[in-house]
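The protein record quoted for completeness.
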Amino acid sequence: MFKRIPSHIGVIPDGNRRWAEREGMEKKDGYQKGLPPGFRLFELLVQHGVKEATFYGFTRDNNKRAVEQRQAFTQACIDAVQLLKNRDANLLVIGNDKSSAFPDALKPYANKRVMFKEGGININFLVNYDWEWDLNTAFETGSKIASAQIPRVDLLIRWGGRRRLSGFLPVQSVYADFYIVNEYWPDFQDKHFLDALSWYQDCDVTLGG
């Protein structure tokens, strides 16, 4: 169906709180509603032969939100990993696990790749991620950035209509093509992903050359 499939797709699943407010719920209630779309997208990624995908979980800045929201998005991240354990995937959770905001339940997967079942697609999950922490790791250690295991992003898809990077893997996203979906993440449809792939077919990938 598609001649060009991006090797690595970045996913910013935004709009959970706005979706909850629109539906008459509390803001915190939107995060759990984002789990089914995530696994439907997972199925589509595998179906279309995408080798790697990075999902934005939550950032250090997100911890500025109300306590009940922090608890809700943290639990959603934990639940997502628990569900992923039943799929064929290689998980890498990237984030500052030395911070109290990093969930204890995800520390066994922190900053190292773990294979679930038969493996297959690489799934990266940014949890308590901070771009400054990522880059400063290289200066502090005299080695590599914290997310060095993650390759360059080919296509970055953001739901929720916002047109900003929000600190998502700034090094790997330097040449990413950026596709915006106006619908909120809990309103995910297969069409959103397929439209992004269709749009990507005409992108002129020169990497500056």
Notes: The chain has one domain: 8-200. The first helix runs from residue 16 to 22. The mean pLDDT is 96. Helices lie at 16-22, 35-47, 67-84, 131-141, 190-200.
